[in-house]
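Help needed: design a sequence for this.
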């Protein structure tokens, strides 16, 4: 029972320690010459690195009890202790010189193969070159698995890398933990350097009472120039994924709005810096129905200090996307309601009176007079219906 259990564990884990049935044919031939007599006699042999045949005694794998043999419950790991006595011990003498105190050459297990030597802990090290690969790969959103494959191609094989995929992942984890506690300060330091090298670069930030970064705004010379040329209409996406943000002038407030999209005051601070660095209000600003954005735009983009106030419009796509959710799929997808509604919603060539008449007729046809959401959308129709943008 004990032997069968150990063999099963060894097969599962890839270990051959303690499993004599898996020794090479050369070693098996030597085993036939060993003595199998009395208890404690030499029953197995293993070739030492020096080429001599060395013997070792069977290891007591368990003790007997009154009911019979006791099963061994091994820990699920890639290797197990096998009682190998091989060692090389140095000691220091009174003359401050080292001498060999003890040397046992024989092993009771096969040594690691040449192809598996790079897995040994002593042969694994994240060198400066490997760390740079992980670091610079992470800067362009390349994970440790792909960077490890790149290192394999760069060094000519996995055995030549000098580290494993686990080492790459561990270093990537440690790197993120290190940066995670200092990312705010690292960003501010970088902005200071950028401002020293380019006077057109602008940034502003605020911290809380504990010193944590809470608000951040920045704009570079290219962004400011682009705003002058193409900045008549700007769309702010308040739900943008901050992990994939690509900073340009039209999304310079993405980080701000993502963190504080439900609070008006931080957005007001960000938009104030926007007007300050650009020197004028937006002509038109398009947002979703974020209440905090509505408050901030109303308070910031106004006609003060010889600035022309901005026109605020709502994103048509966000509103149209809500129709099935607010009115139901059956009405929106199984009837001609949406086709009729789009005729008056999307058209920019009709007059306001035509829209009013068409909207009312559709609402009456489908008996939606009591629908609160449609009533709310109709109340703010001048912010999203193109018929009201004719001027």
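Sure. Designed sequence:
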């Amino acid at each position: 029972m004990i032997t069968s259990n150990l063999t099963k564990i060894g097969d599962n884990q890839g270990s051959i320690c303690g499993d004599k049935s898996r020794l090479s044919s050369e070693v098996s031939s030597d085993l036939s010459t060993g003595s199998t007599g009395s208890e404690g006699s030499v029953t197995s042999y293993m070739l030492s690195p020096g080429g001599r045949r060395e013997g070792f005694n069977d290891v007591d794998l368990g003790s007997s009890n009154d009911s019979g043999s006791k099963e061994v419950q091994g820990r699920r790991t890639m290797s197990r202790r096998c009682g190998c006595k091989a060692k090389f011990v140095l000691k220091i003498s009174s003359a401050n010189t080292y001498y060999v105190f003890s040397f046992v050459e024989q092993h009771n297990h096969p040594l690691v193969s040449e192809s598996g030597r790079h897995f040994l802990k002593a042969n694994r090290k994240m060198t400066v070159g490997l760390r740079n690969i992980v670091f610079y790969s992470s800067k362009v959103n390349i994970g440790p698995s792909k960077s490890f494959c790149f290192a394999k191609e760069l060094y000519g094989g996995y055995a030549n890398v000098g580290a494993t995929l686990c080492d790459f992942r561990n270093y990537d984890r440690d790197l993120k933990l290190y940066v995670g506690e200092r990312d705010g300060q690292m960003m501010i330091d970088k902005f200071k350097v950028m401002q020293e090298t380019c006077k057109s670069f602008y940034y502003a930030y605020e911290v809380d009472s504990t010193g944590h970064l809470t608000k951040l705004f920045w704009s570079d010379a290219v962004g400011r120039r682009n705003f002058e040329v193409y900045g008549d209409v700007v769309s702010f996406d308040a739900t943008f994924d901050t992990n994939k943000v690509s900073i340009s002038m039209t999304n310079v407030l993405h980080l701000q709005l993502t963190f504080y999209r439900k609070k008006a005051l931080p957005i007001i601070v960000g938009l104030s810096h926007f007007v300050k660095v650009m020197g004028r209000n937006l002509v038109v600003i398009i947002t979703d129905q974020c209440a905090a954005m509505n408050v901030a735009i109303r308070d910031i983009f106004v006609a003060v200090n010889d600035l022309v106030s901005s026109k605020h419009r709502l994103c048509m796509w966000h509103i149209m996307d809500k129709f099935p959710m607010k009115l139901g799929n059956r009405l929106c997808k199984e009837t001609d309601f949406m086709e009729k509604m789009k005729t008056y919603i999307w058209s920019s060539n009709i007059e306001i009176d035509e829209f009013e008449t068409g909207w009312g007729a559709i609402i009456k046809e489908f008996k939606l007079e009591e629908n609160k959401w449609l009533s709310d959308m109709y109340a703010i129709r001048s912010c999203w219906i193109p018929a009201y943008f004719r001027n």
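The CA atoms of residues 182 and 212 lie 10 Å apart.
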